[in-house]
Amino acid sequence: MPDRVEAGTYLVAAAVTGGRIRLRDVSPETLGAVLDKLQQAGAQVTQGEDWIALDMGGRRAKAVDIETSPYPGFPTDMQAQFMTLNALAEGTATITENIFENRFMHVHEMKRLGANIELHGHSMAVVHGVEELRAAPVMATDLRASSSLVLAALAAKGTTTIDRIYHIDRGYETIEEKFGQLGAKVRRVS
């Protein structure tokens, strides 16, 4: 079965950068809640039996409220990626994490990039969209946090260095090569 979180991450990457993407060999039916939120954010989404296309048309995303819940609800493993989307979106959004406590460890790193995020306890964040993020050295704290930082770095002005990327390798195979195929300038350094 295709990895719905990896597919969702690449879709959010296109949304965050105002771009477009077409994913093949995916299962659109497993991404219903994610695709709904991307459409609410302003993305044009089309799909077939085993493909999904997303086009932002160069537009900035609109902020979307997120509340995680068990499948088929919004997946907790996509919450961090949508925090990045909301950090750059027009407007303000609330993210409520109902599955795992302490899932907002990436917020402090996002703030280093210029995100405007307020934490309310361990389960709620209010994200005020900003016009742009700016490069900064950041540190990955877990798998999903690391993917959100990669997305933020793709959209940020300048060159961002992400430390402790061994977290990302647990869930994404050759992520730098895949983003490179999409035109991003991502490289692994030792």
Briefly, what is this?
With 190 residues, the chain is an alpha/beta fold. It has helices at 4-16, 32-40, 79-87, 107-112, 143-155, 166-169, 175-181, and strands at residues 20-24, 44-47, 51-55, 66-67, 92-96, 116-120, 124-128, 138-139, 162-163.
Kindly provide the radius of gyration, computed on alpha-carbon positions and rounded to a whole number of angstroms: 15 Å
**Distance N to C terminus:** 33 Å
The ordered string of helix (H) and strand (E) elements is HEHEEEHEHEEEHEHH
Major sheet size, sense and barrel closure: 4 strands, mixed
Q: Describe it for me?
A:
The protein has 190 residues and is of the alpha/beta class. The protein contains seven helices and nine strands, in the order H-E-H-E-E-E-H-E-H-E-E-E-H-E-H-H. The chain has helices spanning 4-16, 32-40, 79-87, 107-112, 143-155, 166-169, 175-181, and strands spanning 20-24, 44-47, 51-55, 66-67, 92-96, 116-120, 124-128, 138-139, 162-163. A four-stranded mixed β-sheet has the order 4-5-7-6. A three-stranded antiparallel β-sheet has the order 1-3-2, with helices on one face. Helix 1 (4-16) runs parallel beside helix 3 (79-87) and helix 3 runs parallel beside helix 5 (143-155). The longest helix is centred in the N-terminal third of the chain and has 13 residues, at 4-16. The radius of gyration is 15 Å and the shape is globular. The model has no long low-confidence stretch (mean pLDDT 95).
